[in-house]
Amino acid sequence: MLRVNDLRFEYHPGEPVLSGINFEVPEGALCSLFGPNGCGKTTLFRCCLKFIKPQQGAVYMNGKPVDRLSVRQMARQVAYVPQEHQSPFPYLVKDVVLMGRTPHASPVFGIGRRDREKAWEALCLMELADIADRPFNHLSGGQRQLVLIARAIAQETRLMFLDEPTSALDFSNQVRIWRLIQRVSRQGITVLACTHNPNHVAWFCDQVVVMHQGAVFTQGQPGEVMSESVLDAIYSGMCAVRYLDGLPMVLPRGLVS
Amino acid sequence: MGQSKGETTGGENPYVYRGRLMWPLTLLLALAAAAAFAMSLGKYDIPPADVLRTLLTPIFSSADLSAAADLNHTVVWSLRLPRILMAMTVGAALAAAGAVFQGCFRNPLVEPYILGVSSGAAFGAALGILFPMFFSIQLFAFIFASLAVACTYGFGRVRGETPMLTLILAGVITGSVFSAMVSILKYLARDAALREVVFWLMGGFYYTTWEDVAWLLPMVGVCLAIMGKFSWQLNVLSLGDEEARSLGVHTEVYRLILIVLATLVTAAAVSTVGIIAWVGLMMPHATRMLVGPDHRLMLPSAAVMGGIFMIVCDTLARTMASAEIPIGIITSILGAPYLFYLLRTKTQTGLV
Predict the structure, then answer these.
(1) Cβ–Cβ of B250/A72 closer than 8 Å?
(2) What's the pLDDT tens digit per position in A108-123?
(3) CA distance B322 to B339
(4) Does some domain include residue B49?
(5) Is residue B63 classed exposed, middle or buried when 0-12, 13-18 and 19+ CB atoms within 10 A define those classes?
(6) pLDDT, tens digit, 9 for 90 and up, residues A144-164
(7) Is B162 a member of any domain?
(8) The domain that contains B264 carries what CATH number?
(9) B113 and B90 Cβ atoms separated by less than 8 Å
(10) Nearest residue on chain B to A103, judged by CA atoms?
């Protein structure tokens, strides 16, 4: 579904932020892009979304190189849920979700009835019907994230990218958002989510691409990949992994015997 | 699945916009009322009924050839109607330009004057007035207005972003440079031309003729229609570059189209009636409070509000004192405190 081939990106010549990136996300997977701060996750994300252009290599969505897709075609392939969104204008929740329909809107008539129906479905799916008429800026962090995910669902794409979906949320909201992301994934949408929380990877995802120092360190299923040896390598020996009912739990080393 | 969820939460489909056209229609009525009152008020008062009768004469050609009717006809058709149409057009143009600049720059505190666009247009137009043999006033107003937008945007952009206050400061810089250049022109100008430039710069509708209305009204109308066509894209643009791109809006293309249109109507307005500040700030903000921020509704409503506001201000300008007050003075006296109020109350909450 998503394939990245030998990608290389540098802001300054000779200092690659990313090099030799190769990975593939199979259709329908909930894949996380995991790694410590500054490992190049966000840069890779931005390359995949065509916000920045890599110096070498290519990104394929559905077998097509993204270079060949127009902005509109691209927006029909992949929906993007930003980490945070601050609008200078107090748009209502329903309008924010309706904006997800932009790539499907008719060039002549604009947003139409079908678009409003799809947006309403997305709102209902995220259980946001009650707050549809409230300004987005008045919502709590968790609600905002839900609205942005609803917007991505309204966009009706087969791929969804989420940038640190739970980084600003409390524990219950983190779990809630990840459960919803799992639900999205079960509907057949391929999900790529950036995160730096190893437990979220282990608990909620079915694939993981581990990045370290601008390269893919390893990839595979979280149960196998999120091992002490891998975490030791990328976090310089600060983590211990224990298993609870076969589920890995990542803890700071020295906390448990 | 979605449907059942909607029922359980008791939410009604919010996309059934009931009564969403109420405000625009009310505003249109208010515009008509403002125009009617403006036509009856002035040095020579004409009762509204007579105004209506006079306006209808070309259609019904009732042969009322009394002296009073003749005078009414002259006052309404040659003096007040073109002037009111001009005020409406200019108000609509400036308010819409303000709304578009605010959306494109994601900054609810900007408008053509604050961005320096008006000053740029004024410099171009002043060049045209002083050197009529070389320059076309309107063309040069547009060229220098575009230059001013480019400068302000260039100065205000820091690492791919345009922070709210940086953009305003960049506008102040651009505006003051162009104002200084206008001053140079004034310094160089001879008597008659100097008088003309100074008077025109203060902003006013005194010299409005049907010829001005005949080109400005259709031009602004077409530009506003195109802006309205792209009002949804303006919504998406105001979310920021990356989000807009990820939603399928080609940011460079649409931002360019919208900014060019806003600059064009600003330049047209400034080159015809001089600098009229703050309208583009006050009207979009007031409209947003009435109809909400969705530009599909807000942009046309702001244009109508601008028209009403300008007609009211112009009527005040002509009737308040024995001599006419330049309208730019009135809008500045109202607008500057408005910006102060916005800065004080809204910037902390991020909710302008």
Answers:
(1) yes
(2) 888 888 999 999 999 9
(3) 30
(4) no
(5) exposed
(6) 999 999 999 999 999 999 999
(7) yes
(8) 1.10.3470.10
(9) no
(10) B248
